[in-house]
Amino acid sequence: MSIFTAAVHAGRPEGGDPSIPSVPGIDLAVSFRAADAATLHTILAGEAPGFSYSRYGSPTNAALEAALCALEGAATARACASGMAAIHVALLLTGLEAGDTLLVAQESYGATFALADTVLRRLGVRPIFVDATDQAALGAALAEHQPRALIVEPISNPLLHLCDVEATARLCHEHGAQLIVDATFATPYLLRPLAQGADIVLHSLTKYIGGHDDVLGGVVLASERYAADLRSLTILTGGLLDPHAAYLALRGLRTLPLRMREHCSNAAEVAAWLTAQPGIAAVHYPGLPAHPQHDLARRMLPVGFGGMVAFDLAAGNEAAVLRFLDALRLVLPVTTLGGVASQILYPAMSSHRALPPDHRRALGIGDGLVRLSAGIEDLSDIKADLAGALAAAS
Ligand SMILES: Cc1ncc(COP(=O)(O)O)c(C=O)c1O
Description:
By secondary structure, the protein is of the alpha/beta class. It has helices at residues 3-9, 37-44, 59-72, 83-93, 110-122, 135-145, 165-174, 187-190, 227-237, 243-253, 256-274, 294-300, 318-327, 357-362, 379-393; strands spanning 76-80, 101-105, 126-130, 149-152, 178-182, 200-204, 218-222, 280-284, 308-313, 332-333, 343-345, 369-373. It has 15 helices and twelve strands. The strands form two sheets. Strands 1-7-6-5-4-2-3 form a seven-stranded mixed β-sheet, sandwiched between helices. Strands 8-9-12-11-10 form a five-stranded mixed β-sheet, with helices on one face. It is globular and about 70 Å long. The termini are far apart. The structure holds pyridoxal-5'-phosphate.
């Protein structure tokens, strides 16, 4: 089934007596009775479908999880309270324990980097940060450190470097490591990491899947062999998504493919246009032929190159970036991405604030770099706003 059709129909209620609702309700029940005690027993054990206590699962969340499984090609999913909660669950799902090594892509989202470098390190896990765009470096790190797992973002934040999921999964499995893919930027519209060999996939639902800046959430998806552990981990860590948020995330998901088509098309047009604008030193977009991994982008992302564009202001300093942000009238200067409105972020000030400046600059995240999430507005309005702000900043 096309993802356009699956997004509209997956997770739709099938039962009901005598009428079947077209959309799931926001089911706020914390506890659920069963026909008899023996049935409740099997439900609590996870051996029969049904609900018992909402930290174990609930109907609105189940509808969202079923839809996400259909889009992602996963056997099991659990919706979590945020993308970061999903990252915690995904890491624990690998069996990570004190004494283990965890490989982390060095260009990961700042909070993922910080989680590994602080909390996990304190708990006795050894994080090693690797260049996930370099298969030779990855192979060497896997062979040397024999990690429990590797966590990567196939489209990195904010420089939009690519990690080849299929090749990386193969390498991980050769060395007995599990591959976790944070596919928040890609969404199932652009990439299905499980089909390419990844073991565990996660998304921040807050971004493209929710899509409207009104819901915070995350999801962990995997094959059947992880189902029992994923269920028990989320029960024990207790960070499931609230049913109100699950309803909103599912409502957002219904239009994900439509929105992604527009995000990708606007981002590609804006990226090409930016390369010819005065005051721009560099444009980072996998769809540009000059992108260092453009060939991989064409292979790995055949449907579109994503809705994110990063660019360096030629002035290359904070004062110019702040003037640029303040001059925008349409594009929202906010600390998020993936919404219907175009959004812009200054990594040095927000997403990558936690990194020491020298380390940040060494990664290529300079003082003049901004990250645009192309919205679904009319392209000419986005360009006009950016042009006005570039003029004000120069
Ligand atoms: C790639 C990526 N993963 C995870 C997260 C965390 O998501 P949340 O803010 O929903 O916890 C973010 C947030 O920006 C992100 O960009």
